[in-house]
Each structure stands twice: as C-alpha cells, then as structure tokens.
Amino acid sequence: GAFFLIRSLRPINQLILDLTDQKLIRQWKTLSVLILSFLIGYLVLGYDLWVHKDNSSFISVMIALVLFLGGTFAFLVGQLALYTANDMKHLALLQQESITDGLTRLKNRRYFDQRLSEEVALSKRYKLPLSLILVDVDYFKKINDVYGHTVGDEVLKNLSNIIMETVRDSDVVARYGGEEIVIITPNTDKKEASLLAVRLREKAEKTVMATVETTQEVVQATISLGVCALSHVILDKEALLEETDQALYLAKKYGRNRVSISSW
With 0-12 CB in 10 A as exposed, 13-18 as middle and 19+ as buried, what is 242? Predict the structure, then answer.
C-alpha cells in the first residue's frame, strides 16, 4: 500500500509540472498533500501492527486492507490522469498540425476557408466590418530561379514573421497558396485594413528577406497587396475573395510593390 501511495505521487507531480491552469495545479497539489497524509497514517498503522502483531485484531487488519486499497486507488487515479493529459496534449498537437502550413507555420488554406465563412457570417449577422488582404511576393519565381528554392522558402518564412509581428491577435493569417498569404481582419473597415497593408509593404521593403549561404549575398524582396471589404456590393465570401484577388492583380499590373484597394 505504501509503495502504491509513493508511486501515485510521481504522475501527480508530473501533471503539476505540465499544467498551466493555476486552479488545477492547486487542486492536484492538495491531492498530493492528502496522499502524503494518507501515507504517513499507513506507515504509522503498519508500524503499530508490526510492534503489536501478537495482539492484532480483525479490525486492525481490515483497516490495513482498506489503506492498501486506498493506496492502489490513488496510484491508479494518478496514472490515469497523467495518461489522459498526455493523450489530450497529443490530440491538441495533431489538431494544430492539421491546420498549420508546414513551411511558414501560418494557418493553412483549409483553416482559412473555414474561418472566412465564419467571419463573413458573423459580420453580416451583427453588421460588423470585415476586410481581407491578399499578399503576393513580387518576382518570386525569379528569386527561386536565381537563388534556389531554399532561399525562396526563407523569403516566405521571413515574410510570414513580419506579418505575424504586425497584425493583431484577432486577425487570421494563412498561406493561401504558393507565395500568396491572406489576412482576415475582423471588425476592420477597408480604410483600417489599407493602413495595415501599407505598413506591411513598408516593412517588407526595408527587411532583408534572406541571405545566400554560399556567398552571403543579401536578398531583398517586395510585396504587392490587394485589399477589399464586405459592402453593399460585396456580400459574400466568394465575392470578397474574387474582388481582393482582382485588387492584387491591379497592384501587380501597375508596377508591384504597392497596395491596391478595391473600389467596391
């Protein structure tokens, strides 16, 4: 019984180290204190039974048996809690990986499609503004052709970092495809989204996007951005995507390294 009680403290202590919720930590610490008290009582009783073994009564034996079962129970609870917590962490990790782009660590296209549908529905229901920004790396094919795909990947990763450092926590940033990154900006009108797009363009222009490992050559890259928002004309997800893509097309058509804002 004492063995099981001692063993039960190990998974509980591991849980306390892994948990972040202070309330849960306090509760598990309380349980560990109770188990320690239980252990002390068990040892005292065991010692008493050993010293007075010739006078041991049936009740004393039963108490010892109950304490043994209690120790086993505490051990099983601790093990089960630890296994369950590990399984939940594993499931959470798998879920996160299923919605994350492997290269940039941004959200992936599937997650973006789901969130955009949800945000459009919320915007229309509560009459809140909603804007979309589509970002494209200028001359990305040329970067890959001249410097190689490793440098191209570094450009995408650094651009992703710039965007994540600039947007709000409530914004959704996802890799839309290839060198395109899309940003959902909830509760944001077109003017506010345009200011964000301008900041992103300026930051990208001033940032070293990659370094060629063999020659230490610095690689600069600019971005073009299209901005659109829901309106009395742009009423649904499909129209918002199409018009934002059209705005991006105009930004590239008229010289790149610029922000184009939908007139709708």
Answer: middle
Residue of 154, 179, 180, 243 marked active site:
179
**pTM for this one?**
0.71
Q: How far apart are CA 97 and CA 88, in angstroms?
A: 14
Dump pLDDT digits (tens) for 134-193.
999 999 999 999 999 999 999 999 999 999 999 999 999 999 999 999 999 999 999 999
Residue-wise DSSP of the chain: -HHHHHHHHHHHHHHHHH---HHHHHHHHHHHHHHHHHHHHHHHHHHHHHHTGGG--HHHHHHHHHHHHHHHHHHHHHHHHHHHHHHHHHHHHHHHHHTB-TTT-SB-HHHHHHHHHHHHHHHHHHT--EEEEEEEETTHHHHHHHH-HHHHHHHHHHHHHHHHHHS-TTSEEEEEETTEEEEEEET--HHHHHHHHHHHHHHHHHS--EE-TTT--EE---EEEEEEE--SS--SHHHHHHHHHHHHHHHHHTTSSSEEE---
217: annotated active-site residue: no
Going from the C-alpha of 112 to that of each of 73, 132, 235, the distances in angstroms are 46, 11, 18
Q: What is the pLDDT of residue 49?
A: 60
- Rounded (10°) CA dihedral 181, 222, 249, 147: -80
Integer Cα distance of 137 and 179 in angstroms: 6
Which residues lie below 8 Å from residue 76, measured CB to CB, with a gap of 6+?
8
Q: What is the pLDDT of residue 68?
A: 62
pLDDT at site 181: 98
Give Cβ neighbours of residue 38 (< 8 Å, ≥ 6 apart): 5, 67, 70, 71, 74
